[in-house]
Amino acid sequence: MNRQIQQAKYLFADWISAIVAWALFFIYRKYSVAHDDLSLIEIFSDVKLYYGIIIIPLFWLILYMIAGFYRKVFRKSRIRELSQIFSTTFIGVTIIFFTLILDDVVVSYRSYLQSFLVLFGLQFILTATLHLIITSRTVKKIHKKIIGFNTIIVGSSDNAVDIFQNLDNQYPSAGNKFIGFVNAKIYDKYKLAEYLPHLGNYKDLPRLIRDLSVEEVVIAVERSETELIENVIAEIENTEVVIKLIPIMQDFLLGSVKTTAIFGEPLIQISPDLMPAWQESLKRLIDVTVSLIAIFLLSPVYVILAIGVKRSSPGPILYSQERAGLHGKPFRMYKFRSMYMGAEKGTPQLSSENDSRITRFGKLMRKTRLDEIPQFFTVLKGEMSLVGPRPERQYFIDQIMKKAPHYRLLQRVKPGITSWGQVKFGYASNVDEMVQRLKFDILYVENMSLAMDFKIMAYTVLTVLKGSGK
């Protein structure tokens, strides 16, 4: 499967749809105003038509990207896609209508409504038609196993064999391309080994997912192994795979079985997405926009802080540390130096409230969180976000994991300049406090939304203004 080619198909289709829709609407709009007093030559000699053909399609492509049209291009539901196109088209046409059309020649309010409906109808019908053609052809290939998603089964006995046979023989196919299985418990003989290669233990899943480009993991353990399900999910929950489990009767009764297939095997599906696609795109756009504005507005503050740090004690102005970011990937995090040079030698140490290693000017910066503002540049690079769990050093992560293995949940998202843990708890001076702060960051990850981000940023601003940071 080539995702870039599939994405290019949707992009090209949307570009063509937007050009044709705008051209037809432009012609309609001209005739509705001038009636029979206008010729096609006059219409096509109007420079506004060509400005629109260049600008309007770009607007639609950007809007569709924000809405998440070009993500998961092989996993589209046609009904959901139609709904998404309908709502996004309505928003886009409303923006175009109020920014470009309201200053047009006034005929009547009825003509405005007709223009709105014509533009909406053209854009929606053309976009939806081309999308459905591409998606239907893709779905057909998935059903015929021409396109498949690399899948690993967790389990090795009767349940695993049943699930494998049911999914592998299912028609139309759900697109699972089984490449092997891993065991949850060790047995003398694995029944599933008669059908699929044994790839190791469930603890090998992170490596297998990375090395074999795995997209789905189906957990099909026996009832005697169900206590291991939580451990299996913990191993892979910070990856991008789709997790599916065999439901028990209680799951049916509680309504937790989610499936996109009517005739397929009923499985509980755990999606790796924590936010809707449009919110993720908008979150990144807000990160970039706010960081650029902050860097511009705070440029005098950068200069003042640099002078203050330089005069507070000998040493460099900026201090950098390697921290663990998204999916545990290391990156360099920069701050204005708030400690004396050589304050940390040998074993990594956390700062405390009355830490003698912190300069007087450093304490002021920490109270107002101004030592963190160089991280706006890291946000622009895409290694951090404005809001997200605070990144830690691997040395402390290893200690936290011994007491709270669910810390790995935080690595499902980009770390942030500020976080719910920072707002509610502040800096941690030891591992136990880090574990206490963890519950606030877990709460954020499990309830991620733009509304939550705005709330955290508002509280952070209040903390800076009050100078009440811990």
Can you list the strand order of the major beta sheet? 3-2-1-4-5-6
Number of helices: 17
Mean pLDDT: 83
- Given helix and strand content, the structural type is alpha/beta
Percent of sequence in beta strands: 5-15%
Distance between the termini: 50 Å
What is the oligomeric state here? single chain
Major beta-sheet overview: 6 strands, mixed
Query: What series of H and E elements makes up the topology?
Result: HHHHHEHEEHEHEHEHHEEHHEHEHHH
The Cα radius of gyration reads 28 Å
How many separate structural domains?
3
Please give a quick description of this structure:
With 470 residues, the chain is α/β, with parallel strands linked by helices.
Written description of the protein model:
The structure is a single chain. The chain is of the alpha/beta class. It is built from 17 helices and ten strands. It is flat and about 85 Å long. The two termini are 50 Å apart. Mean pLDDT is 83; it is low at 249-257.
Brief descriptors of the model:
alpha/beta, 470 residues, 17 helices, six-stranded mixed beta sheet, Rossmann fold, 53% helix, single chain, flat
Layout of secondary structure:
Elements: H1 3-34, H2 40-44, H3 47-67, H4 78-101, H5 109-143, E1 149-154, H6 158-169, E2 176-183, E3 198-201, H7 205-211, E4 216-219, H8 229-236, E5 242-245, H9 249-254, E6 268-270, H10 277-297, H11 299-312, E7 318-324, E8 330-336, H12 360-368, H13 375-381, E9 385-387, H14 394-403, E10 416-418, H15 420-424, H16 431-446, H17 450-466
Parallel strand pairs: 1-2, 1-4, 2-3, 4-5, 9-10
Antiparallel strand pairs: 5-6, 7-8
Helix pairs in contact: 1-3, 1-5, 3-4, 4-5, 10-13, 11-12, 14-16
